[in-house]
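Reopening this one. Same input as before:
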Amino acid sequence: MTASDRLQKRLTKIVCTLGPACFAPDQLKGLVKAGMNVARLNLTHASAKKQLPIVHLVKEIRSKHPIGVGILLDVRCAQVRTGVVEKPIEIKKGQEVCFGVEKLRKESGKHAFISVDYSAFGKDVRKAEILLLDNGEMSFDIVSISKSGLVKARARQDGTIGSRRHVNMPGADISLPTFTDADWEDIETATKEGVDFLAVSFIRTGKDIADVQAFLRKKKSSIRVMAKIETRQAVANFKDILRESDAIMVARGDLGAELPFEQVPVIQDEIVAQCRAAGKPVVVATHMLESMIEHPLPTRAEATDVAHAATIRTDTTMLSGETASGRHPLVAVDAMDRILRATEQHLREINGQDMPKAISDMEARAQSAVLLARSVQATAIVVMTKSGKSAEAISKFRPMIPIIAITDDETIWSQLSMHYGVSSLLCSFKGELEDSVIRGMKAAVAAGLLEKGDEVVLVTGTEITGGSVISIQAREVR
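Same output, byte for byte:
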């Protein structure tokens, strides 16, 4: 099965996190062939500048691939992490451990000491219910907090603590500023490099996203901003965050550490529904195929989790450690691809076609195109688009057939990689509209997205004095 075959048969997109397990050129090419739509680079452990060689390599690989592949940089933002250790520290259940800034190490006495990189840790942790490391892989009950801010805590289970482990403090109101100087440097590097998406971590309000959007406008950047929902405050302020964002990620690892785990599935589904109604892409992330970091097959529960994400019509599912550091990165992508395609085929068979409300003239026309495609049993919807907006609007209504977006803008070509059902092709718009349509159709056939004789719905726009005319028509591919 070719990459185009996979993209034709799969509507839900896949984000793959890049890391040592897949940095080699052949491995990155393999990810694209296996079905990666967006490459994610996590800036927690290395700055954007240090990861530019990988960004350049992805750009080189995607330039030889007909269908757009996006690049996402995940900015660290307000995180509390443990310090660097020479070797992992062994912890036993019931053992008392001290946490604090490095200068408090002597105060810990004979207890194991875990340094943290946050100067106000001792102050903010006073309202915390518990301490969690690595999204809850290890948990500690707080025993006492000294006047100097040294925190004594008791381990709930055996485990090890390595370098730079993420610390959650459920119940605490972290006073860290959302962005550090290093974050703004990463964001500026992203604007210079012209990546497609910026994921912003640990945001709390819509203003956090508005600040990034303002920075990008000053830099005249077209990067799209994705808000990661992983804090209690972000859930409480979600409507404001959604309004300011171009896309949303449900980061379930930290969200599950911040909130009771039983609430996470409901919050996930509500966020996906609100993003669909707003016509903005949404990513379901973290722990989707976690066992495949070590094993070549997912658990049945993981397969069901991925299938559920497809059933609620999320735009994108994401792989993290599975591809970044796992033993089977290509196998993990293949597994997710297979689960998504099988679920989408099931949805076609049961004809599960719920549609959100159209809230603009463009969306009303998009809905009409989807209904026409369903009526004539079209193979695909082909959209001629310069800005990508028409393709995005059609994606909102989740047709169970591919949306083939023909664009002459390279940025739009790669940014459409995040949207449900959209396969984007780069094609010249020189000459008459019909000439561009013919070139676009030929490009879709060459990419394996269409075959001669296919019935499609074609959506085009023609500029006139004072506006534009949108045409929706059924056509046969010749």
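So the earlier flakiness isn't reproducible anymore. For the record, Residues 3-78+177-350 form a domain with the TIM Barrel fold (CATH 3.20.20.60).
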